[in-house]
Design brief:
Elements (H helix, E strand, L loop, with lengths): L1 H15 L19 H8 L9 H7 L4 E2 L7 H7 L13 H24 L7 H22 L33 H18 L13 H15 L2 H7 L22 H8 L7 E5 L13 E2 L6 H4 L15 E3 L4 E3 L5 E7 L4 E6 L1 E5 H14 L3 H13 L14 H7 L15 H17 L5 H8 L4 E3 L7 E3 L12 H4 L9
Antiparallel strand pairs: 1-3, 2-8, 4-5, 6-7, 9-10
Helix pairs in contact: 2-5, 2-6, 3-16, 5-6, 6-7, 7-8, 8-9, 8-12, 9-12, 12-13, 12-15, 14-15
């Protein structure tokens, strides 16, 4: 696994040695960005350098009260859908908000430099990456800090400030666009970026590339309900993307640390966009509110399989089996003072993958009423996650899906209408996505778009229930942002 470790170290060095200090300078003192190389250097930091995984995961129904005596305040606040105490700590709501807008500022600086250089065709790759990066950070912001997308209310719902110009003042006041306006601006940047982006990078998976751009677009259009667009974007995957999905079976031969490294490796075919944020998400298994040892079988037990078989996910216990974890995050600690033991932790994370991309495609087929095709694709996906899969006997059929995932009145309520059969399939796919992306926060986005009720139990306290359309589904605006005029969310 030496090659994987070298790859991870290179990624972290790229992230921490870039020109991030540029935006800390007063606007008048900034160095002119006047060459393609300088633009490329700016774009290294056009991706959020803080992780959202722990925030989103802890708010979802993947997390339980493990019963540990102590926990971090931010862990408890996420679990209870509370605004976190204003803090500069990493892996918090406020720092992720700042990281997204900082990434946007880098993208906007690059776009301004491209315009000053004449916006020539030779700069199209940089322009494409900048537009996609700007769209991505705004998309993540509106996904966390606004109500879920609903075309019936989006023109009135509070979105987030969509920033398209570099800041010219040290403190700039912004007002919130509506959700409809934000989505329209994301789509504009996204579509233009899709036309321009290339794979012409030394480390292609550490930037928006063609496949990563399509995967991001499929997530965006799945939320908007544009099923045809999702299918068209994923045509290159086909019905059986052999060799393109994560090979969980191969992890059986690896140590726990090597599994952590392999998960976010650039050599894994499924990984499309990788970043290395300043994060301690690898230590989250020590949180009180996490995937508990006595509850993880509810999500990962053989009874949850359509085939009645065990999953290929390798779980390990921590804290005397109080919590369990799937090895996904390898922490690299960069010492700033070795003698004092002071430094900064970084963790490689996968932001976009073929696994998600393919599940988006299957869901779009379900919504188009193409059940037979959805069966074939879901069966292939599950075959890569199932111990002892038998192609002859382990079949996905409508009867199996409907029986395994019966319709429960008012359980899944997206803004669009679902037939009973579609409801069962959407639930099956949401549960599949829930398992595959455990610890990565993906479940929160399904909780939000399907308006799923979440019950968080805490020992010796009343159950805290996140009801449908609960205002807490939109995070509260960080205090320092509201102090500069960004309107608060209703509570």
């Amino acid at each position: 696994m030496k090659t994987l470790k070298i790859t991870l170290s290179l990624l972290i060095l790229i992230c921490i040695t870039s020109c991030d200090d540029f935006l800390s300078e007063k606007p008048d003192n900034r160095t002119e960005i006047d060459t393609p190389d300088k633009i490329a250097e700016i774009l290294v930091n056009a991706y959020p350098q803080i992780s959202y995984f722990d925030i989103a995961e802890t708010m979802s129904d993947n997390v339980f009260d493990s019963g540990m005596v102590q926990t971090l305040l931010k862990n408890e606040q996420n679990y209870n859908w509370e605004i976190q105490t204003e803090t500069a700590d990493i892996d918090t709501q406020a720092t992720y908000w700042d990281a997204c807008y900082r990434a946007i500022a880098h993208a906007n600086t690059a776009l301004e430099a491209i315009d000053k250089l004449g916006n020539t065709s030779s700069l199209n790759p940089q322009r494409g990456e900048a537009l996609l990066a700007r769209a991505y950070s705004h998309f993540m912001l509106v996904s966390f800090w606004s109500k879920r997308y609903d075309p019936a209310t989006a023109s009135k719902d509070l979105g987030i400030p969509y920033v398209t110009k570099p800041e010219t003042q040290l403190v700039t006041k912004y007002t919130r666009n509506t959700v409809a306006e934000v989505y329209a601006l994301i789509e504009k940047d996204l579509e233009e970026g899709l036309k321009l982006v290339t794979n012409d990078y030394k480390e292609v998976k550490f930037h928006f590339n063609k496949d990563a751009a399509k995967a991001f677009a499929s997530r965006f259009y799945l939320i908007k309900g544009d099923w045809d667009r999702v299918i068209a974007l994923s045509d290159d995957l086909g019905t059986k993307p052999v060799g393109k999905l994560r090979d969980f079976a191969s992890y059986d031969l690896l140590s726990v640390d090597d599994q952590r490294i392999a998960y976010a490796s650039s050599t894994a075919n499924t990984n499309l966009l990788i970043v290395s944020p300043n994060s301690i998400v690898a230590r989250s298994r020590s949180n009180r509110f996490y995937l508990s040892g006595d509850r993880y079988q509810d999500i990962f037990g053989p009874s949850t399989s359509l085939f009645g078989k065990s999953w290929l996910y390798n779980f390990y216990s921590s804290n005397s089996s109080i919590t369990v974890f799937l090895p996904k995050f390898y922490e690299y600690f960069k010492y700033t003072n070795v003698t004092a033991g002071i430094g900064e932790p970084y963790t490689a994370e996968v932001l976009l993958s073929n696994d998600e991309f393919f599940l988006n495609r299957i869901e779009a087929h379900v919504m188009k009423g193409q059940t037979a095709l959805a069966n074939e694709e879901l069966e292939y996906f599950l075959s890569t996650r199932t111990v002892g899969y038998n192609a002859t006997t382990d079949k996905v059929t409508e009867a199996k899906v409907v029986a395994k995932y019966p319709v429960i009145d008012n359980e899944y309520t997206p803004f669009y209408t679902l037939t009973p059969v579609q409801t069962s399939y959407v639930k099956a796919l949401a549960e599949t996505r829930r398992r595959d992306f455990v610890h990565e926060g993906m479940r929160w986005f399904d909780v939000k778009r399907f308006n799923i009720v979440v019950n968080h139990e805490t020992i010796n306290k009343p159950v805290n229930t996140l009801v449908k359309d609960d205002n807490r589904r939109a995070l509260q605006i960080p205090l320092h942002a509201s102090n500069t005029g960004v309107e608060l969310n209703p509570r």
